[in-house]
Amino acid sequence: MTIGDKIKKTREAKGLAQKEVAAVLKMNPSQYSKIENDKVDPQFSTIEKIAKALKINIVDLVAAEDVFKDVSAYDKTIVEKVQLMDLLEEQEKKSLFSIIDGLVAKQKLKQSLSSALNLAS
């Protein structure tokens, strides 16, 4: 699904007309229509404004769900959780990253020790 499709689907789900959203954005309605119909590639700042006008998180518009069509359910769960991390407060994110860093360091240490023991044998 393209960004234009996502914008259009969201706008329609909220029961808004293109002219209404364009007015909130202070944008020419024909320009807004071009965005929804993928006639132009909007700048990221424009996408941010559209998300704000539609009262949604920008992640909902730019999430790379199509990229992950062929990955396993386990991988999709990981991707969804990573996307949800964006909702955490800054201190919670730092704590989570510290935990992940610690687990990765532990795994690297195990691999190093295992390699050293194999060399000594």
Q: What do these coordinates show?
A:
With 121 residues, the protein is mainly α. The protein folds into two domains: 3-67, lambda repressor-like DNA-binding domains (434 Repressor (Amino-terminal Domain)); 69-120. It contains seven helices and no strands. The longest helix has 31 residues, at 90-120. It is elongated.
Produce a short descriptive summary.
The chain has 121 residues and is mostly helical. The chain contains seven helices and no strands.
Architecture blueprint of SSEs:
Blueprint: H1 3-13, H2 18-25, H3 29-36, H4 44-53, H5 58-62, H6 73-85, H7 90-120
Key descriptive features of the protein:
single chain, mainly alpha, 7 helices, 0% strand
- Measured by DSSP, the beta-strand proportion falls in under 5%
Radius of gyration: 22 Å
Main beta-sheet annotation: none
- Can you identify the CATH superfamily of the largest domain? lambda repressor-like DNA-binding domains
CATH architecture of the largest domain: Orthogonal Bundle
Number of domains: 2
Helicity range of the residues? over 70%
Task: Extract low-pLDDT stretches.
Answer: none
Structural class: mainly alpha
CATH class of the largest domain: Mainly Alpha
Global morphology: elongated
Q: Total number of β-strand segments? A: 0
Number of helical elements = 7
CATH fold group of the largest domain: 434 Repressor (Amino-terminal Domain)
Mean of all residue-level pLDDT scores: 86
The string of secondary-structure elements, in order, is HHHHHHH
**Terminal Cα separation, in Å?**
55 Å
